[in-house]
Specification:
This protein is an alpha+beta fold. It has helices at residues 30-36, 54-58, 61-75, 109-114, 169-172, 188-191, 200-204, 251-259, 291-299, and strands spanning 7-13, 16-23, 26-29, 84-85, 90-91, 101-105, 126-129, 136-137, 143-144, 150-151, 154-160, 176-183, 186-187, 210-218, 229-234, 237-243, 269-274, 311-316, 320-327. The longest helix is centred in the N-terminal third of the chain and has 15 residues, at 61-75.
C-alpha cells in the first residue's frame, strides 16, 4: 500500500480538545478516522477506548505509526464531510504539555558568529529547560510581551516517541517520533546580564514563550532532515534564513547527549537551537567579549524586537509554518 503523507495535530473545536489526523487541509478526528476505516483502537487498555491526547499515541508510537499509515491511505478517499478544514479549528501545540521540553543553546555556527563566540573543535552546546505548560502554546494562542526587548528564535524541534536512555548518536533517531516547529521566544533584557553572562531561565521560560506546531510530522516523511532550511518572518519580512546543515550538533547527537543525562520519555520535546538573524544584534558585528557592549547598545535603542500586533512565523519546509500573533 502506497504511503499517504499525513501529520498529527492537537486542536480545539466546539470547546473540546481532540487529536487529529491531517491530510492536506483536512483534519480527521482520530477516533472517527479509525471508525470509518473499520479499525479497533489499538494499544489501549479498554476495548475501543478513545484516543484522548497526543501522548496516548506517542506512548505506543511504533505500533500507532503503522496503524496511522494504513488509516491515512484508506481515508484519503473518504467523503470530506466527515472531516474539518484546518482553518476552522484552533490549533494547540501538538504536545500541549510535554513531560520535558529541553532546548539547545548556541548550536549554530552562524548564530555563534553573530554573538561574537568562537567555536572550538571540542565545543559543547548548552542545554536548558524551556518551560512548563504555561510556556508552551500553539498557533491559535498569542505571545505575550514581558518587555520591549522580546526577540524571536526560529527552531526545528524533535518529539520523542519511546523511552531513550544512554542511546548512541547512531541509534538516537530511532527514538524520535517526528518533528515540529518551535519559536524560542526570548526576553533579552532578562537574559542578558551586565557582565555578559546569560540567564536562560529568566529570559526564555516565561508564559507563552514556547510556541510549538502546527503539527507533528513523522520522521519517515521528511526525506532530507540534514538539509532542511529554517526561516523566521516577522510581518512577512524574512529575519532569519539558516538551515539544519549549519548546526554544530545535529538532531541525533543532541538527542543522544540528553539521553545520557536523563531518560527521555514519549512526548518530550527537544528544540535544536537557532541560527543567525536574531533581533537584538541586528546591524551589529560582535567580537569575543562584546556581549556587555551589545547589551548597552540594546538598552540605548539598538536592535529590532517584537511589538504588539506583530505576526511572527517559523517556516520549515516539510515540517510546517508556525504562526503566532503578539500581544502586549
Amino acid at each position: 500500500m502506497q504511503c499517504t503523507p499525513f501529520s498529527l495535530v492537537t486542536y480545539r473545536y466546539d470547546n473540546k480538545v481532540y487529536v487529529g489526523l491531517v491530510l492536506g487541509q483536512q483534519i480527521w478526528e482520530i477516533n472517527r478516522a479509525l471508525e470509518i476505516v473499520g479499525r479497533s483502537h489499538p494499544f489501549t487498555s479498554g476495548k475501543d477506548a478513545p484516543v484522548r491526547s497526543m501522548l496516548s499515541i506517542l506512548n505506543e508510537w511504533d505500533g500507532w505509526l503503522t496503524c496511522l499509515q494504513e488509516v491515512a491511505s484508506i481515508i484519503v478517499d473518504a467523503a470530506e464531510e466527515e472531516s474539518l478544514v484546518l482553518e476552522h479549528v484552533e490549533l494547540q501545540a501538538p504536545v500541549p504539555a510535554p513531560g520535558k521540553m529541553m532546548n539547545v543553546g548556541l548550536n549554530f555556527y552562524d548564530h555563534a558568529k553573530e554573538m561574537g563566540i568562537e567555536v572550538p573543535e571540542d565545543f559543547t552546546p548548552s542545554f536548558f529547560w524551556k518551560g512548563d505548560r504555561n510556556c508552551i502554546i500553539g498557533p491559535s494562542q498569542n505571545i505575550r510581551l514581558s518587555s520591549k526587548y522580546v526577540d524571536w528564535e526560529a527552531e526545528l524541534a524533535v518529539v520523542i516517541g519511546k523511552p531513550a536512555k544512554d542511546v548512541s548518536p547512531e541509534e538516537a533517531m530511532e527514538y524520535v517520533a517526528g518533528f515540529t516547529c518551535h519559536n524560542d521566544v526570548t526576553d533579552r533584557h532578562l537574559m542578558m546580564q551586565e557582565d555578559g553572562s546569560l540567564n536562560f531561565l529568566a529570559g526564555k521560560s516565561r508564559d507563552t514563550f514556547g510556541p510549538l506546531g502546527p503539527a507533528l510530522v513523522p520522521t519517515d516523511q521528511i526525506s532530507d532532515i540534514d538539509n532542511l532550511p529554517i526561516r523566521c518572518l516577522v510581518n512577512g519580512n524574512v529575519m532569519q534564513s539558516t538551515g539544519v546543515d549549519r548546526m554544530i550538533w545535529g538532531p541525533a547527537r543532541c538527542v543522544s547527549a540528553l539521553s545520557g543525562l536523563f531518560t527521555l520519555q514519549p512526548g518530550d520535546v527537544v528544540a535544536l537551537g537557532t541560527g543567525s538573524g536574531v533581533g537584538w544584534t541586528h546591524g551589529m558585528t560582535l567580537g569575543p567579549g562584546d556581549l556587555p557592549r551589545a547589551r548597552e547598545r540594546m538598552l540605548q535603542g539598538g536592535g529590532i524586537f517584537l511589538k504588539a500586533g506583530d505576526t511572527v512565523t517559523v517556516d520549515i519546509p516539510d515540517v510546517g509554518r508556525l504562526e503566532n500573533k503578539v500581544e502586549a
